[in-house]
Each structure stands twice: as C-alpha cells, then as structure tokens.
Amino acid sequence: MLTTHTPTTTSTGRWAGLAGRAHGDLDATTRPLILLHGLSFDHHLWDPVMDNLPSGHPALALDLPGHGHSPALPSHGLEAVADAVHDAIASAGLRDPVLVGHSLAAGVAGVYADRHGAAGIVNVDSSWRLEPFLHLLHQLE
Q1: Is 107 exposed, middle or buried (0-12, 13-18, 19+ CB in 10 A)?
Q2: Which among 91, 113, 121 is positioned nearest to 18, based on CA atoms?
Q3: What percent of the chain is predicted at pLDDT more than 90?
Q4: Distance CA 108, CA 106 (A)
Q5: Strands across the sheet with 120-124, in order?
Q6: How far apart are CA 7 and CA 58, in angstroms?
Q7: C-alpha 47: how far from its chain's center?
C-alpha cells in the first residue's frame, strides 16, 4: 500500500493484495477513476490513459486477480472479482469511484456497482451480454 500521496504521485503498489498503478493524489476529493483491464491483460493496458490524466487526478489501474502481479482467487466469478476490486479500492482510501472496465472487466464494473455502488461505469469494448462470452470460455477450458 502506498504511504505518501502528493499531487503528482504515479507509482506501483498493492492494495488488498491486488497489484497496480496509482496516479495523482489519492486523498483528493475528485472522483477517482478505477481502471480495469480485460481478460489476458494487466494494468499496463491503461498506461496511456494514466500518463495523460491531469497530474493530481486520483486513479487506480489494477491487475485483476490471476493477472499481472495479482494472485489468483479460489473463484474467479464476477462477484468474487468485484469484491476483490472493492477491497482494493477501500484499501486505497478511495470512495464513490467511476469504474472503467475493458472487455470482460466491464462486467466486473457492473457487478461492482450493483454490489458496492459507484458514481459511474464506463464500458470499453464490451457487450453487456456476457453470458455468450463466458459460455465460450468455459468450452475452451
């Protein structure tokens, strides 16, 4: 967990076990952005976005469980992943986030908002109908 926050902080760390990159002042009152990558990616997917945010704007790009440097969970169901993301957001001291979910993580963002509340959700390159995609993944397993 990061221990110091300055308006231009950009660093990697771990929040409730999830690895990622923090940007800006995590203590700011501005709505934080939570950036969630899709299947087979990691938080680096969001580097171009993080690099272009205003210097003080709080943002957290996380490695989802089992990706990048985050450990796997016993279950990778959307609810379990959304709860792990919630724990990381709380650990970072962030509240009322706007979640940006790429691909399958758009489903994580939706489940998160339903279970924990959110100021908003941005869906990047994903259908809201995740069942057909999940069925395909189970077949490939």
Answers
A1: buried
A2: 91
A3: 74
A4: 5
A5: 10-15, 18-23, 59-62, 33-36, 98-102, 120-124
A6: 9
A7: 13
**Rg (alpha carbons) of the chain, rounded to whole number:** 14
Name the nearest CA neighbour of 86 among 2, 5, 7, 17.
Answer: 17
Q: Are 112 and 82 in contact (CB under 8 A)?
A: yes
Helices (H) then strands (E): counts for the chain? 4, 6
Name every residue whose Cβ is closer than 8 Å to that of residue 122 and which is 6 or more positions away in sequence: 98, 99, 100, 101, 109
Token pair for residue 106? 């758009």
pLDDT tens digits for 63-101?
999 999 999 999 989 999 999 999 999 999 999 999 999
25: tokens are 């002042």
